[in-house]
Amino acid sequence: MTYRHRLPEELRWRAIGRLEAGQSQIEVDRWLNVSPSVVHRLWQQFLTTDSAFRRFSQGRPTATTSADDRYLSLWARRNRTATPTQLRSSLATATGRLVSTSTVLRRLHEGGLYARQPAICMPLTSRHRRVRLREPGTRYHPSNIRERDAYGGDNVCVWGGISLNGHTNLHVFPRGTVNAQDYRNGILDAYVRPYAGAIGDDFLLQDDSARPHRARIVDDYLQQEKNQSIK
């Protein structure tokens, strides 16, 4: 039989007697059918206190005092939105005592304080239900219809040119996209070339690094028109 909880006082004294008679701790723990650590602690206790009685303790000391518990409860009631981490920091600042957030939660639960759970919805009264429900046969009445405009998902692409002295009109690409040929014919030839002629030799074209702007046909067109381009 294995004694899982504690040895009876009679067996404890009999084990001490066997050890004093010269038996080894291994022989005694085999006789008691317990782990070697049990016999070792029993023998060390006898050598230290000259007693084999089991020592009772009050358990692990609490991490907080009654004053700390009252402080946590009062602070939580005054600050309803405070988190356990904030309560822990407040207690450490006030008393210098460091405790875990789990300890704070346990103390609050012992005082009947729990986290507030927001309501999912406001409970409807009979009056609310009557107002919300429509009368039979009025499903398509204008007062019961809410119009919604869903966007079709098409793309819009526009181009505009600006300078120190003015700007061009916005150009809208019908397909919503632009390639190098569209940029050359629809922008450079239609807008940039006339605008550059109006500005004169000081005209300087600056665009971004979009793919249509860096295409070969665009570079050839700019060289042909002898326009300076910043890339």
From TrEMBL:
<dbReference type="GO" id="GO:0003677">
    <property type="term" value="F:DNA binding"/>
</dbReference>
<dbReference type="Pfam" id="PF01498">
    <property type="entry name" value="HTH_Tnp_Tc3_2"/>
</dbReference>
<protein>
    <recommendedName>
        <fullName>Transposase Tc1-like domain-containing protein</fullName>
    </recommendedName>
</protein>
<dbReference type="InterPro" id="IPR009057">
    <property type="entry name" value="Homeodomain-like_sf"/>
</dbReference>
<feature type="domain" description="Transposase Tc1-like">
    <location>
        <begin position="69"/>
        <end position="134"/>
    </location>
</feature>
<dbReference type="InterPro" id="IPR002492">
    <property type="entry name" value="Transposase_Tc1-like"/>
</dbReference>
<dbReference type="InterPro" id="IPR036397">
    <property type="entry name" value="RNaseH_sf"/>
</dbReference>
<dbReference type="GO" id="GO:0005634">
    <property type="term" value="C:nucleus"/>
</dbReference>
<dbReference type="GO" id="GO:0006313">
    <property type="term" value="P:DNA transposition"/>
</dbReference>
<dbReference type="GO" id="GO:0015074">
    <property type="term" value="P:DNA integration"/>
</dbReference>
